[in-house]
Amino acid sequence: MIFKNFSPSPELNGLVKTYHLRHFEFPAHAKIPYKPFPPRDEQYLVFYVKGSEQVYLQRDRQTVFRNKTILIGQSTQMIHRMVSPQFLLIQVPFYPGALYRLTKIPFYELKDKSLDFELVFPQETREVEQRLSEAQCYPEMIEIVDRFLVELFRKNVQQEIHYFERALPLFSSTEGSTNVDFLASQACLSTRQLERLSKRYFGVGPKTMIRINRFTWSFIHKSRHPELTWFDVAIDCGYEDYQHMAKDYRDFAGVTPTQLWAADKNAPDRVLGLR
Questions:
Q1: Which helix (H) or strand (E) segment is 64 a member of?
Q2: Looking at residues 163-175, what average pLDDT do you find?
Q3: Which stretch is the leader sequence (predicted)?
């Protein structure tokens, strides 16, 4: 079993954040805990090398079955992930806007949704799935995915960038002071233009992306510094106070910060002692 992250090639800097490789093995009749997965300021490409998972969208009350190479748009709600007993996945989180640049799919069509990647790049996706099924070790799998993405971006992404793309790195900033007016000024756009392009690139408006980023960072910050109180976490992450932060947890996860923290403690990776 493995729970490990790998770095992408330098050519993918600013496009791919990392490669998450997750390999779980449970006894056939084991009761497998679900993984609570709140929204993050990322869109994903997920390769199901072995097994499958059922994903329950909490707000939509919808269950989705996944076992192929899937493109996942921006999430705005908590999902519960239930994996099969034999499960090997490579999950690729992209920096905001990178997948729009690659696919040219308006991401407002993919908010809280997923898409079979074979519908976008049929031949390339079938080939990479075949190579992954034949791979003999984890590093080989990562190399296959990395080469696949390098080639896709070379062929499909123009070097010229839109004004809006100048502001893309700022959407992942952990500075709590980031706001819509500042982002618009950095992109040389009006706030209305920023709103329209943000929905095209991410699926949601800039204010929502800023909130999701700050919400994500608050949970990461607490994970790295468990000795901090939630009030301290809120202040460190740019919230006015605890209640301000708790509202984001209710809106995006449907629970309080303490409840999300407790649920994460029972996730499969923690039960198996992988982190």
A1: strand 62-66
A2: 75
A3: none
